[in-house]
């Protein structure tokens, strides 16, 4: 076992390992790495194959890739549409209630201070947006490689996403 902690683990014990009153604090467990355990199961190999790394183009037909990408894209687009409407309604409703409260005299808003704070935030965003952080560039490169290796799948996802937004 390496010194790093496994991502997932299963703790198992048998009846003979159950503690009695004398050894209540000295029980031992077998640590099994979940990822390795699952890869040895028959159903995993039937579902994903022995070597499940690499682009989807090597494992699935074009029709399957388009179907998987299209369905998952449609689901993501549909959820994005619903959540987007909810968020827009919440933000718009908040501003609407703020305006009503201001006009009826419940609150006083210092608009000059709001404008100064917004301009200050714009300047800070402009300064920090010149060069993206290393983590963003790394993730962007990973996404580029994935899209290049799975062009049919991502094309199906993009089409499904647009259909999900439209429905």
Automatic annotation (TrEMBL):
Transmembrane segments: none
Record's keyword terms, sorted: Membrane, Mitochondrion, Mitochondrion outer membrane, Nucleus, Phosphoprotein, Transcription, Transcription regulation, Transmembrane, Transmembrane helix
Keyword Ribonucleoprotein attached: no
Major place of residence: mitochondrion
Function of the protein: Binds directly and specifically 1,2-Diacyl-sn-glycero-3-phospho-(1'-myo-inositol-3',4',5'-bisphosphate) (PIP3) leading to the recruitment of PIP3 to mitochondria and may play a role in the regulation of the platelet activation via AKT/GSK3B/cGMP signaling pathways. May act as transcription factor that regulates SREBP1 (isoform SREBP-1C) expression in order to modulate triglyceride (TG) homeostasis in hepatocytes.
Membrane topology field: Multi-pass membrane protein
Species classification: Eukaryota, Metazoa, Chordata, Craniata, Vertebrata
Gene Ontology cellular component list: mitochondrial outer membrane; nucleus
Stated name of the protein: FUN14 domain-containing protein 2
PANTHER family: FUN14 DOMAIN CONTAINING, FUN14 DOMAIN-CONTAINING PROTEIN 2
Family matches, as InterPro entries: FUN14
GO biological process, one term: autophagy of mitochondrion
Organism whose genome encodes this protein: Cyprinus carpio carpio
Similarity field: Belongs to the FUN14 family.
Compartment annotation: Mitochondrion outer membrane; Nucleus
